[in-house]
Amino acid sequence: MNLDDTLHQIDDIKAKLDTAPPFNEVELGRIRENFMINFTYNSNAIEGNSLTLRETALVVLEDLTISKKPLKDHFEAIGHQQAFDYIVDLSKSNEDLSERVIKEIHALVLMNVPEHKGKYRESSVIILGADDIPPHPSVVPSEMERLLNEYKSDTRHPVVKIADFHINFERIHPFADGNGRTGSLFLNLDLIKAGYAPINVKFTDRDLYIDCFTDYNKVGNSSKFIEMVAKYELEELTTAYTNAIEKEAVQELRQKGIQVDLEGFKKYMAEKRKNEDNKPASPATSTKHRADTQYKRW
């Protein structure tokens, strides 16, 4: 499937989700918490954090210390969790992505590194495995200003535009550490603000993730990364759509006083999904990507 087809599917599913019954606060809380734990684990694991998924949950939810695991890894989990909570709160405002927002996200990600948190790097860096050398620290502020101005005027599909911004941000590598995690967080911030789902790049896809940046650094081609982000977005929206349809099906059966076993529910769901998939998307949401129609998940 090419990128245009993927984007069309993304917006078709989003349009249907925008008109689906909303999740209640308890359901939303469970969805957010589950995503936050998985997102925190995978983002940190990609960067070398040794905490497992279960250990990450224990650290951020139970405030436990894991025996024989570095204290640094605990701070990375807590910092990422706090940064995620920050972007969820920020997504409810109309504030544009800015240098201040990016630095505030970074300050939470590197909460235990006071000399670097929220500050652009002051020395040159080399990215392991990359042929391209990030810009000299003296031009980082102007490079970031240029990138943000270009982003504000970018009229492409939100998924394409934010993915392209992310990979350009990584090329600049404005911070001494924490660039990847910061980039993933502001990527999700603007996806949520545009009414899409946040994505969670899996640790198992680490090699593909790195290959995307290698390709970009070698030939300046961001298409592989954009396609990866779009694929993840489609998966997240498809899962949310399935959950919404299942909830609606349960409500319908209970309202009708019908009791079915698991196989009966699966058959009911299959028929309902078939009918829903055949419905045309609402023109109000399918013909243009809109930031004012969130699908009631975040």
Using brief descriptors, characterize the structure shown.
single chain, 298 residues, mainly alpha, Fic-like fold, 12 helices, 0% strand, globular
In short:
The protein is an all-alpha fold and 298 residues long.
Folded structure, characterized:
By secondary structure, the chain is mainly alpha-helical. The protein has a domain of 208 residues: Fic-like fold (Orthogonal Bundle). Helix 7 packs across helix 10 and helix 10 crosses helix 11. It is globular, with a radius of gyration of 20 Å. About 4% of the residues have low confidence.
Alpha plus pi helix count: 12
Low-confidence spans = 283-295
The proportion of residues in beta strands is under 5%
How would you classify the helix and strand content by structural class?
A: mainly alpha
Fraction of helical residues: 55-70%
Number of strands: 0
